[in-house]
Write a structure and sequence with these properties.
InterPro entries: Mopterin_synth/thiamin_S_b, RnfH, RnfH_sf. The chain has three helices and five strands, in the order ββααβββα. By secondary structure, the chain is of the alpha+beta class.
């Protein structure tokens, strides 16, 4: 492995598919470039990068973020239900007897 490249991971998960790929990228690679190199957009039908949020190790990051060695890029699906609203609904229900 050359000194000017390093390993990163790209991951995405849904009900139907799980994608995890490790790849070598050159120094200066952005999050968006790494997603393109990983092939996730080709392998997972219907993925639209403009509609997904992205992050590194569960911290949201913009697509122009420059990567570091051992970063794990995560593609986040939109939430189906707002967690705060779901909690309020559960609390409002009468307790089971």
């Amino acid at each position: 492995m050359a000194a000017d490249t390093f390993t990163i991971q790209v991951c995405y998960a849904s009900d139907a598919v799980q994608f995890l790929r490790a790849l070598q990228v050159p120094a200066g690679t952005t999050l968006e470039q790494a997603i393109g190199l990983s092939g996730v957009l080709d392998e997972v039908p219907g993925l639209d990068l403009s509609q997904l949020q992205t992050g590194i190790y569960a911290k949201k990051k913009p697509l122009d973020t420059v990567l570091r060695a051992r970063d794990r890029i995560e593609l986040y699906r939109p939430l189906i239900a707002d967690p705060k609203h779901a909690r309020r609904r559960r609390k409002a229900r009468p307790a089971a007897e």
